[in-house]
Specification:
With 354 residues, this protein is an alpha/beta fold. Helix content is 27%, strand content 23%. It has two domains: 13-221, Alanine racemase (TIM Barrel); 231-353, Lyase, Ornithine Decarboxylase, Chain A, domain 1, CATH 2.40.37. The structure holds pyridoxal-5'-phosphate. Pyridoxal-5'-phosphate is lined by residues 35, 84, 156, 191-193, 208-212. It holds the Pfam family Ala_racemase_C.
Length: 354
């Protein structure tokens, strides 16, 4: 049987990923826990984790849900895996057997861990999402220590990617108040925003940069560390034709050809995560030129004005990467880089490159 090829592919750059990890590890002054939740922010769990495991600054990985932990454990990369959200009671022994580090936020959870489990005490210092309040965390941490299962303690910043760092400092102060009353264990707090804005934090053994590891920083923190986008997204031209002057293109007839217009139809759409809200604004890179996406972005396809270019069926065009950035696409789609990246669908092939 002939091989059937994907219509879109995400090239995952080892050198960009490693460069970002080196820069972030240097800025935090610690090894890193790389968040690879949500398919490594859309970059592909397996491809990304394999490339990252070759970097000496990666202590381990963090995932959001138990099935991600299981999939990652199956790769046997020899690095610790931290689960970031609470498992159900029946999942605890399964995950402990896999060696997954478990978040703990109550005495009941601390008591229920099997003796071979490894726990990271989660302290809620102001995010109000998960974790034990600081005044409860100390006794939970001491109990985990008594049971010989306490490996780490962590918290999560709510506002570290914003210009005003007042609340982030307050959260860290609360976290230190807990750490001061616990035996020494691996403490970690900063996400990417925290590393970029706060730099080295006293007493921290690790840090957890997600989006920054994949190459993106909040606008006011660009330039703090040399980050490069790890992903280049390409899609294939499936058809080339000419729309006559005055004809409309795509659903709703939103765009009218002002002149005879050479159009390339591309095999990527909103079902793959290309934001439908970017209609009327989006551009792509065709033969190193920025070209407009015209008409409504469809579920599986969009059309590009390629007038004057020699474009053929089967050509690859660049949807985002170093020139047209995910940040631009997010702005056109009225969302954020996180959502654009994690929305990238299953039909897109992920390929590791040098
Ligand atoms: C997702 C997540 C991170 C990474 O956040 P970024 O903003 O992508 O750097 C770190 N810690 C926790 C607990 C998270 O859920």
């Amino acid at each position: 049987m002939a091989a059937l090829s994907a219509r879109a592919r995400a090239l995952i750059s080892r050198s960009a990923l490693h460069g970002n990890l080196s820069a972030l590890s240097a800025r935090s002054g610690t090894p890193l826990i790389l968040p690879v939740k949500a398919g490594a922010y859309g970059h592909g769990l397996e491809v990304t984790a394999r490339l990252a495991a070759e970097h000496p600054g990666v202590w381990g990985f963090a995932v959001a849900v138990p099935r991600e932990a299981q999939a990652l454990a199956a790769l046997e990369l020899g690095r610790p895996i931290l689960l970031l959200t609470p498992p159900t009671p029946d999942e605890v022994p399964v995950l402990a057997d896999l060696g997954v580090r478990l978040p703990v936020a109550s005495l009941a959870e601390a008591e229920a861990l099997p003796p071979h489990a490894r726990a990271h005490l989660k302290v809620d210092t102001g995010m109000n999402r998960l974790g034990a309040r600081p005044e409860e965390a100390v006794s939970i941490g001491r109990r985990l220590h008594e049971r010989g299962v306490l490996e780490g303690v962590y918290t999560h910043f709510a506002t570290s990617d914003e210009p005003d760092l007042g609340f982030a400092h307050e959260q860290f102060r609360r976290f230190q108040g807990v750490l001061d009353r616990l035996p020494p264990v691996l403490a970690h707090a900063s996400n990417g925003g925290g590393i970029l804005s706060l730099g080295e934090l006293p007493g921290m053994a690790l840090a957890r940069p997600g989006l920054a590891s994949y190459g993106f920083a909040p606008a006011h923190l660009r330039g703090v560390a040399p980050l490069r986008p790890v992903m280049t997204l390409q899609a294939r031209v499936t058809h080339v034709h000419t729309a006559r002057a005055g004809e409309t293109v795509s659903y709703g007839g939103l765009w009218t050809a002002p002149r005879d217009t050479r159009l390339a139809t591309v095999g990527l759409g909103y079902a793959d995560g290309y934001p439908r809200n970017a209609t009327g604004k989006a551009q792509v890179l065709v033969q190193e030129e920025r070209r407009a996406v015209v008409g409504r972005i469809c579920m599986d396809q969009f059309m590009v004005d390629v007038t004057g270019l020699e474009v053929q069926t089967g050509d690859w065009i660049e949807v985002w990467g170093r020139q047209v950035t995910v940040s631009e696409v997010a702005a056109w789609g009225e969302t954020v880089e996180y959502e654009v990246l994690t929305g990238l669908g299953e039909r897109v092939e992920r390929i590791g490159v040098a």
